[in-house]
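Supplementary notes for students who missed Thursday's class. We covered one full example, reproduced here. Read the sequence, then the structure, then the short commentary at the end.
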Amino acid sequence: MLAYPSGVDVSSSALRFLAARLRERRHALGTRWRRLSAGRQALLTLAHLRKAQPCAQLAAGFRDGTTTVYRYIMEAVELLAALAPTLAEAMRAASMKAYLILDGTLLPIDRIAADRPFHSGKHKKHGMNGQVIADPKGRLLWASPALAGAVHDVRAAREHGIIDALPRAGINCWADKRYQGAGGTVRLPYRGRWDSLSAGQQAVNRSHTKVRALVEQAIATLKSWRLLRKLRCSTTRITSLAQAVPTPHLANSD
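Structure (token representation):
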């Protein structure tokens, strides 16, 4: 296999963050020597997550074995996932925000048609349901563990504890009509056909849409990591990947 120089559009602060955490882990484990330094392992992992390159291609570029590269990546992914903020930590960090925005997104997976629990009726494809919380400027604050794609957004929000956490934190949250029945401090648009709504209700819905639309920036931040655009791994690993991917971004946005 041929190897060639390439680049990856990830900030140097994300690289330094992951490299520092890997050095700490190696020190804690008493690791004496590895073929790749902590910095090179961090670069390898970020390249895989950002560009979705297969381990075989990365192994050729980093001049190491495919199995070893896979172990390097999995070690770093598990470390990042463990460092991901919990929902309680995200709520504390957002306590001074005027409000939050909640939305769900589908993380597409490579599954056969028989895998009905992973099929999203809304998106008409197989995937995993991920819940995203953004601040009023559309910045990503928290990404949830992944659930099967057939799970409805309001159910996913309840299972993750989002619906209960918001009123405890005293924070209002804007969401779309898929969160009907959420209650608490979740603010929803008026239901019904557009021509059946009053002029005042239509104005409220237009304003609500403008506010809620900013969550798409947070989802775009998540999906800028190409690995999450089409996952070809076991569904048991997707939660770790979904929480590992935004961790360097969240750590460097504090």
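Commentary. The two ends are 41 Å apart (CA to CA). The first helix runs from residue 12 to 29. If anything here is unclear, bring it to office hours.
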